[in-house]
Amino acid sequence: MHKILNWDMHLFCYINKRWQCSFLDKIMPKMTHLGGLKASVLICLTLLMSFHSLGKEVLLAMGSSQIVVQAAKKFLPRPRPFLTIPQTNIWKNLILKDYSFPSGHTAATFSLTTVLAVSFPVFAPIALPLSLVIGISRIYLGLHYPSDVLIGAILGSASAAIVCF
Predict the structure, then answer these.
(1) How much is the average pLDDT of 13-24?
(2) Secondary structure (H, E, C), 26-64
């Protein structure tokens, strides 16, 4: 376990501190919001109105992944990296008060991506890299450890796979 936590800390510091550049400083705060509540609700409503059965699958996948995420945050309270790691690069207006583990943004975006990839495989090469960037943005912005993002991706993908199959 010590090795995993050590790896998590080193990878976090590498992404959060060494990748810093003006381009990513502009892009990452915008990317991270694509996995947030407003974007998720908007996507679900749009899909429900346009593609009813696909919208229901996305809604079920996202909803079930978020139930698991919120339960995990309650029972496995891990402080966010910006609270525990000195000189973490963070952006104002993105400081959160809940716990870090697992990443809800990543779970939401991977549940959407998985449903889309199953239903329309042609979108997978676009949706998967976008989901990865959203997950990485959570680390870049100092809000999550890499393991939070990895588990969020697994939870989102697993929720979608259960709904689809």
Answers:
(1) 93
(2) HHHHHHHHCCCHHHHHHHHHHHHHHCHHHHHHHHHHHHH
